[in-house]
Amino acid sequence: MSWYRTRMRILTVLAAGMLALVSGCGSGGSAPSEEEEQTPAESQEETGTGQNGKEVREEEEENDMVTEGTEEYRGFLLDNVLHSGENGDIHYNLYVPESYDGSRPYALFITLPGYEGLYFQGVGENLYQESFGFEAQNYISDMIILVPQLEDWGETSASQTIALTEYFLEHYNIDTSRVYIEGYSGGGETLSLVLGSRPELYTAALHCSSQWDGAYEPLVENRTPLYFVIGENDEYYSAEPAREAYDTLHGMYREAGLSEEETGRLLVLDVKDTSYFTEAGVSNQHGGGNRLFAEDEEIMGWLFGQTAERSEG
Known about the structure:
Distance between the termini: 35 Å
Largest sheet: 10 strands, mixed
Shape: globular
Number of strands: 10
Structural class: alpha/beta
Strand content: 15-25%
Low-confidence stretches: 1-62
Radius of gyration: 21 Å
Helix content: 25-40%
Oligomer: single chain
Order of helices and strands: HHEEEEEHHEHEHEHEHHEHHH
Number of helices: 12
């Protein structure tokens, strides 16, 4: 059993005991039912980790409470739900290393799914269909991995991704110099909107087999490193949108006074030729990028090799 689930059960038992004691002393009534149990907010603030138990009352949803999932798949706890007052219910799958106890900061990786992994496709489909979350463990073993199951690939998913990121930064002990994000296909479109709005939340980003829908200026101002990768004959997007986004960002960095070397450290365009796919026995470049890019040590190694200096506040 993971640290995350063990801690939740311990907190729930402690909360039940405390509430039963108060009820017995104050009114002589019976102990609260399981549906009424709540972990005190003070407990969460003291640890800086964990979440507020399995059950959430409707009147408290505006406080961004979490309902914990009940099933696991390859170490990931499935279908947790952040009840966001502003962004609705945000479903996500979560891997927390056994070693995590909140005493030291851990890296965070967020992987955004393509169409086949959205929530309406079924719980856990993003993990069943994409391997970025699993391959990431080969680079930083003690890393929290967040795998949202979003509703779309537009503004709703972008807002939910930002809200989920902020929740984890607030409630877990995260090393803010190592917060990584990746988006494949439709998830790449979401990624572009996220980076066009709140790039300062992330250390580096990987944009796979997709197009750019977001703003450029915030990304350039924040100097968030970004890696574009796509097949030269991507059947869905083609490589042109990625090239156009790269050229736009490259020009903006140069206008900002960065040298070619400095720009190269912040911005990479990697257009894979046909042989990259055929030599791996893959005929479809768009769908093939799902697996091949996740398994490519040069691509993933670039992402997790990035670190950033972050100032408090």
